[in-house]
Specification:
By secondary structure, the protein is of the alpha+beta class. It is 47% helix and 13% strand. The longest helix is centred in the last third of the chain and has 54 residues, at 581-634. Bound molecules: adenosine-5'-diphosphate and magnesium ion. Magnesium ion is lined by residues 214, 341, 469.
C-alpha cells in the first residue's frame, strides 16, 4: 500500500514515487517564497519587516495577505481554516471555521478577511488557565504569529488551512506557550544587540534563535497496541517483563531499517516536506523499535510549530501503516526512553551564528563571550532549566538507561574548556595554534572542535561545534518552554555583560574593549565553570562529583517545578517582560495538575489491569496447574513441580491482592487533596511507589505463567515485532 499513490487514503493525488522532491517541497506551506510570488512587492516587504520585528502589522497588509492565503488554500481544496495554537496542555489546538459567507439568496461565497487572519476568538475556555480566567470570562483570543508559516493539513477528511497563532486572554495574559516564546526571543535579541553594539557591531538590528529538534519515538504493531489498555490510555506500559533480549547488543542503533519502517519513514518525510518541514535525517535508535527523525534547523518559532506537526504526523501516519507511534518518554521500563535533542543557537539578522568559533580574532572574542554567557546562564538558572523538562514522563527517563541525569551541566570538550580555564586563571586565554599566548581579540585561537570526534553524548547540555544541544527535553514535550527559559536565562546574563561593556568610555580603543571582554569572561567563567563537565555524565562518580561542586540534582518533576514560584525566578521573567508573576503562578499550577492527572490515570489503569486482566487470568492458570498436579498424582506420576509452581503463583497473587488494595487507598487519599502542590507530591511520593510495587509482582508473574495464558502481549511482541 503506498500512501499518496493513486488509491491513497489521504486523498492526495501526488504519487511520491513519481514526483521529484523539489516539486513537492513546501507545496502546502504559505512560505515566504510563496508570499513573494503571490503578494504585491510592497506588501511582501511589509510582511518581512513585521517578521523581523521592525514594524507592526497594519490592517491593509493583513487584508491583502488574507486574500492571497484564502485563494491559495481554496485552490488546494481547503474549505476551512483554523487558528492553530499551543495551549498549556503541551499539545496543539484547532477550532475549524469554514470560509463560507452567505450571500442572502441561498448561496455562499468564500471569504477570509484580514481581521480573521490576525485575530480569532475561539473562546476555548476549557483549556487550562491556572486560574487566570474564570469560565464566565470565556473570551480568549488568538493572534497570528507572522514568524511561522501557515500550512495546509490534508487527510482523507479534507484540507484545512492552519494559521499559527498565539493565544491570549481578554486581559492580554498569555494562555499558551507561544506568547512567552516570542517575548523571550525579543528579550534575548534586545540584550544580545546591546552586547554586539558595544563591541562595535552597529549594523546588526536583530538576533533570532535557531532550533533543530531531533525527535525520538517508538513504533509498535497496531495489533499488539490495541491489546494494551495501558499503552492506549497512558502512552506507556505499566507492566511488562523484559524479554531475554533487550537492547544490550546495541544492534538496533543505526542498524538497517526494516522495510515496513522504511516505508513509513519515506512517507513521513514526504508529508513533512509538503508542509515545508525540512526533514533531513532518520535512523534506528538504541532501543529496539525506537527511531529518530531530525529536520534541518529553522528560526525557533517555526521549529516549535514544526515539531508539533512532526509529532502529530508520526502518530497519524503510523496508524495508516498499521502501527502506533509512541511519543512517551518511557513507554518500556528497562530499555532506553525517548528524548528530544533541542539544538539551539543565536544568529544575527545578517546571518552570523554567534556560537560559531570565528575566522578572525575579533569574532573569536565574541564567540567566547557569548559562550561564557551560556555557561553562566546554565549555572545560575540550572533549576529553571531543569524545570523546563519536568514532566511525569521525563521522571521515568532522566537518570535512567542512557538518558542524561537530572543534573544540569555543560560539555565543552577539552580544547575549548582549556582556553576558557586559562582566561579565568589569567593566563591570557591559552595558547594559539602557533603556541603563542593569546590576547583576546588580537591573536587567533587554536583550531576548535567542530565535528563529531569531540562529542559527548552523555551531557545534558553539550556544545557541538556551533550550537548547544539540550538533551534533557522529553520526547512528548513541546519545545516552546525549554527554549523560552533558555532565552530568558541567557538574556539576563547578556544584559549584565552589556552593562559592563557599555560603561566603557565612549570612543574607547579596541584594545580596551578586548581587555573588557577578557575581564568579563575571566570573572563570569571563573565563577561558573563548575557547571562545565566533560566526563561521563551517566556515571555514578559524576553524581558525587556534582554534589561536591554544589550542582543541584533534582530528581523529580514536582520538586523541579517549585522554582517557578521563587521570587528570583519571577523577577527574572518580569524584568524581561516574558511572563508576569500571575502568569508564572498559573503555569506552576497547570504543570502540577497535569502531573497529578497523568499519574492518576496511570494508577487507575494499573488497578484495572491488575484486577480485571492479570488477577483472573493468573488465578485460572494456577488452578489449572493445581488440577494438572492432581491428575498427575492420580496416575502416580510426579506432580511436585506443578504443585510448587501453583503454590508460588498463588502466594504472589495474594501479595498482589494486598498491593492493589494499598494502591487504592493511597490513590483515594491523593485524589482527596485539594492543595495542588500537596496533591502532586502525594502522587509522586505515595501513588507512584504503590504502582511500582504492583508492577514488580505482575512482572514476576509474567515470567511464570504460560505465554498463551497471559492476558497481554509482552515486551517481545511490542519491541521486536514489526
Ligand atoms: P546528532 O544526532 O549528531 O546530534 P543531527 O545531525 O541528527 O546530529 O542533528 C543536529 C541538529 O542540529 C539538526 O536538526 C541540525 O539542523 C541542527 N543544527 C545545526 N546547526 C544548528 C544551529 N546553528 N542552530 C540550531 N540547530 C542547528
Ligand atoms: Mg543529537
Amino acid at each position: 500500500m503506498s500512501c499518496c499513490g493513486d488509491e491513497c487514503a489521504c486523498g492526495s493525488k501526488i504519487d511520491f514515487t513519481k514526483t521529484p522532491v523539489e516539486e513537492i517541497y513546501g507545496t502546502n506551506s504559505f512560505s515566504n517564497a510563496l508570499m513573494r510570488e503571490k503578494l504585491p512587492k510592497n506588501i511582501y516587504r511589509e510582511v518581512v519587516a513585521v517578521q523581523n520585528g521592525e514594524k507592526e502589522l497594519t490592517a491593509e497588509v493583513a487584508e491583502v495577505v488574507a486574500a492571497a492565503m484564502r485563494d491559495w488554500a481554496i485552490a488546494k481544496g481547503a474549505s476551512h481554516y483554523t487558528h492553530w495554537f499551543h495551549p498549556l496542555t503541551g499539545l496543539t489546538a484547532e477550532k475549524h471555521d469554514s470560509f463560507i459567507s452567505p450571500t442572502g439568496d441561498g448561496r455562499v461565497i468564500m471569504e477570509f478577511s484580514g481581521k480573521e487572519l490576525i485575530k480569532g476568538e475561539p473562546d476555548a475556555s476549557s483549556f487550562p488557565s491556572g486560574g487566570l480566567r474564570a469560565t464566565f470570562e470565556a473570551r480568549g483570543y488568538t493572534a497570528w504569529d507572522v514568524t511561522s508559516p501557515a500550512f495546509l493539513k490534508q487527510d482523507k477528511t479534507g484540507t484545512t488551512l492552519c494559521i499559527p497563532t498565539a493565544f491570549i486572554s481578554y486581559y492580554g495574559q498569555a494562555l499558551d506557550k507561544k506568547v512567552p516564546l516570542l517575548k523571550s526571543i525579543d528579550a534575548l535579541s534586545k540584550q544580545a544587540l546591546r552586547v554586539l553594539h558595544a563591541l562595535g557591531n552597529e549594523s546588526v538590528k536583530r538576533v533570532i534563535t535557531t532550533v533543530g529538534p531531533e525527535q525520538e519515538y517508538f513504533l509498535v504493531d497496531k495489533e499488539f497496541y490495541d491489546q494494551r489498555p495501558d499503552l492506549m490510555l497512558t502512552g506507556r506500559t505499566v507492566f511488562g517483563a523484559l524479554p531475554a533480549k533487550g537492547q544490550e547488543m546495541e544492534d538496533h542503533y543505526f542498524g538497517a531499517i526494516k522495510e515496513r519502517v522504511a516505508d513509513f519513514m519515506r512517507e513521513l518525510n514526504f508529508e513533512l516536506w509538503k508542509v515545508g518541514i525540512p526533514a533531513k535525517t532518520q535512523h534506528n535508535e538504541v532501543a529496539p523499535n525506537q527511531f529518530e527523525i531530525a529536520p534541518i534547523y529553522t528560526n525557533s518559532t517555526a521549529a516549535v510549530d514544526s515539531n508539533q506537526v512532526v509529532m502529530e504526523t508520526i502518530r497519524s501516519l503510523a496508524r495508516r501503516h498499521g502501527m502506533e507511534g509512541l511519543l512517551h518518554e518511557k513507554p518500556f521500563a528497562g530499555v532506553n526512553g525517548s528524548g528530544k535533542h533541542n539544538n539551539w543557537s543565536i544568529a544575527t539578522d545578517d546571518g552570523v551564528n554567534l556560537f560559531e568559533p570565528g575566522e578572525n580574532p575579533e569574532s573569536n572574542a565574541r564567540f567566547l563571550l557569548f559562550a561564557s554567557a551560556v555557561v553562566e546562564a546554565v549555572d545560575r538558572y540550572a533549576l529553571l532549566i531543569r524545570s523546563a523538562v519536568a514532566t511525569s514522563g521525563n521522571d521515568h527517563r532522566l537518570g535512567a538507561n542512557e538518558a542524561p541525569p537530572a543534573i544540569v551541566s555543560i560539555f565543552f570538550g577539552g580544547p575549548l574548556t582549556e582556553i576558557l580555564d586559562n582566561i579565568a586563571e589569567g593566563k591570557s586565554g591559552g595558547k594559539s595554534a602557533s603556541g603563542a599566548q593569546i590576547k583576546l581579540g588580537v591573536t587567533s585561537l587554536p583550531n576548535l572542535p567542530k565535528d563529531v570526534s569531540d562529542r559527548n553524548r552523555t551531557s545534558p547540555f553539550a556544545f557541538t561545534g556551533n550550537k548547544f544541544e539540550f538533551r534533557m527535553v522529553g520526547s512528548s514535550q513541546s519545545i516552546a518552554t525549554p527554549n523560552t527559559y533558555l532565552n530568558v536565562a541567557v538574556a539576563q546574563v547578556l544584559s549584565e555583560f552589556a552593562d559592563k561593556l557599555e560603561s566603557l568610555p565612549a570612543g574607547s580603543a579596541v584594545s580596551n574593549k578586548n581587555e573588557a571582554i577578557q575581564d568579563i569572561i575571566k570573572e563570569s567563567y571563573g565563577k561558573h565553570r563548575r557547571v562545565v563537565f566533560n566526563g561521563n555524565g551517566y556515571s555514578e562518580e559524576w553524581v558525587h562529583e556534582a554534589e561536591r561542586r554544589g550542582l543541584p540534582n533534582v530528581k523529580n518533576a514536582v520538586d523541579a517545578l517549585s522554582v517557578l514560584t521563587r521570587s528570583e525566578t519571577i523577577s527574572l521573567f518580569e524584568t524581561h517582560k516574558v511572563l508576569t508573576k500571575e502568569e508564572m503562578e498559573s503555569r506552576y499550577h497547570i504543570y502540577l495538575e497535569k502531573y497529578s492527572k497523568q499519574i492518576n490515570i496511570e494508577a487507575g489503569v494499573t488497578i484495572d489491569l491488575a484486577q480485571r486482566y492479570i488477577f483472573p487470568a493468573v488465578t485460572a492458570y494456577a488452578s489449572s496447574l493445581a488440577g494438572d498436579a492432581s491428575s498427575l498424582a492420580a496416575i502416580g506420576a510426579a506432580s511436585a513441580p506443578q504443585e510448587k509452581r501453583a503454590k508460588r503463583i498463588a502466594e504472589i497473587l495474594a501479595e498482589l491482592y494486598d498491593d492493589i488494595a494499598k494502591l487504592e487507598t493511597v490513590l483515594a487519599e491523593a485524589q482527596g487533596i485539594e492543595d495542588v502542590p500537596a496533591q502532586a507530591k502525594a502522587y509522586f511520593e505515595k501513588v507512584r511507589p504503590a504502582m511500582d510495587l504492583i508492577r514488580t509482582k505482575v512482572d514476576s508473574l509474567e515470567k511464570m505463567v504460560a505465554k498463551d495464558a497471559w492476558p497481554l502481549p509482552g515486551y517481545e511482541e511490542l519491541l521486536f515485532k514489526l
